[in-house]
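Reviewers asked in the last cycle whether our approach scales beyond single polypeptides. To address this, we selected a multi-component target totalling 668 residues and predicted its structure end to end. The input consisted of the following lines:
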Amino acid sequence: MTATDAQRNASEAGLTSALQPQAVLDAAAILKGAANRTPVLTSRELDRAVGAQVFCKAEHLQRVGAFKFRGAYHALSRLSSEERARGVLTWSSGNHAAAVALAGRLLGVRTTVVMPDSALPIKRAAVLGYGAELVCCPAAERENVGRRIAAQRDLAVIPPYDHDHVIAGQGTAALELMQEIEPLDLLLAPVGGGGLLAGTALAAGLKDTRSRPRVIGVEPAIADDAARSLRDGRIVTLDHVPDTIADGLRTRFVGERNFAVMRERVHDIVTVSEEEIVLALRWLWVRMKQVVEPSGAVALAGVMAGKVDVAGKRVGVVLSGGNADPAAVARLIG
Amino acid sequence: MTATDAQRNASEAGLTSALQPQAVLDAAAILKGAANRTPVLTSRELDRAVGAQVFCKAEHLQRVGAFKFRGAYHALSRLSSEERARGVLTWSSGNHAAAVALAGRLLGVRTTVVMPDSALPIKRAAVLGYGAELVCCPAAERENVGRRIAAQRDLAVIPPYDHDHVIAGQGTAALELMQEIEPLDLLLAPVGGGGLLAGTALAAGLKDTRSRPRVIGVEPAIADDAARSLRDGRIVTLDHVPDTIADGLRTRFVGERNFAVMRERVHDIVTVSEEEIVLALRWLWVRMKQVVEPSGAVALAGVMAGKVDVAGKRVGVVLSGGNADPAAVARLIG
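The resulting structure, written as structure tokens, was:
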């Protein structure tokens, strides 16, 4: 076996990654003018409370209300004109579905989205509003159903996280943050399937920003597969879909491509309790006047709950999304 | 009677104002570094929906969560060192109270705040948190109680709106908006006592920005004293404290100084229903991910409800504050 074969085999086994930081710069060039350059939010009170300087990248103000637009638009932009003409398919219960639907509308690509029967009506309406074709099926079946339809109709599949162009696109949020705020010592992102965390870690590896921050993932304690995977050196799969309030992070395992990047470039993954997520959500609402969804507040919860040593540091935090139901948020924080 | 006497008499009768646009520039110089330069928020969807370009000045992201910090800090900064040593007093249902309390803490001035028994707990807690002495009394009595305590203790009074330095300070929000976004055709602000609207109108009169926008006030229909005052050419007083959900606009009459500026410089005042305020609040929450209090959404409600002809125009809107209770907002928009 040659070195290249070994590398390919290791990569296919999810042990090393061919994805390099440059991919994030390439994605940023494609996303320019399409994705919002979201603002960076700060709070004197937060800084005092945690003894650090915290810079929140406001991806809840991204198009479709979540960072997912970056990866979806980037991935669709990379398709050949033949693939675009045939259309694309994805499966997702939430923000990635809306992101693919909007990216398709903007790029003139027909989109088919497989959602679980249990998806919130508001999320279904968003997908339909962007003009996607919607297929509903039992939650456990969505990837199988999606792959079967894609094969039947010859559609390109844009999976929610285990995809190089999706990962590179998600990394552009951290890239913008590092370009605007420098230097940063730490960079925190929530982790579900690992698209945002892997992209963030790639961005942190770029040599042409002044920062070389350590990258830390934050995960709900009751959905700690990523933390265990990083510790064990292999992808750990949860027995069941975890019932965290962070509905965007209810993944049973991280992607192989995502795990390969994480192993190489992520310093640590810490976990937060459901109560700690609620405290962060409440802080964001009451003090920073920002509507962030539970998943989107998980990285900040890691800082506020003291799960990461931030003392005296300059800390970037990705607020990853803001699609929440008013009544549900009120029940949590009211 | 000399021309100057006539002018002074007219001014004392609230018919003309000695306040000039330059006062806003002077206030801005004092507020630099103390007040947040708040961001300007936009939404493609909003622009499509109303057929205009709308630029929202995010004063809910101001210190204490409302534009009120500007006027309060400016007014306290203008006191003599003797007055500062004796301390200041104000009365307010909410945001002005917190603003005076924080300005006092920052400037080392003792503050006493008279609030109505009915003030929101979140607003009371803010005042106490900034170290003010809090006096509670029936809503209708607050000015009388405040003036009596001020006389007894020899405290300088910083009223919530009928005060030149307060008005000039509030105008700095519009000044920043015009400096960042130019040109603007229209500039909309909510009106309660008229501090923000008068300050906004003064700022719009400055000759050294590219914009000379028309200034329009927006008011809850069930608290329409300002609209009636402008129409009748005299200050109209409501019989009772209006029960609008916009709790920051529950004033029975505008200030004399405010009215004088409004007569000279405000193009129109339009009104919105309670339902229209809720629709704007809901839009801000669900689509723009911003927590704005009902009063803070009133000017945007005027645009969204079609009360102002904005077609094809570039429209500045002040989102004036964000201090709301999660459960209460959920009841309104959930």
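Chain B touches chain A through 22 residues (CB under 8 Å). We regard this as preliminary and will revisit it once experimental data from Aim 1 are available.
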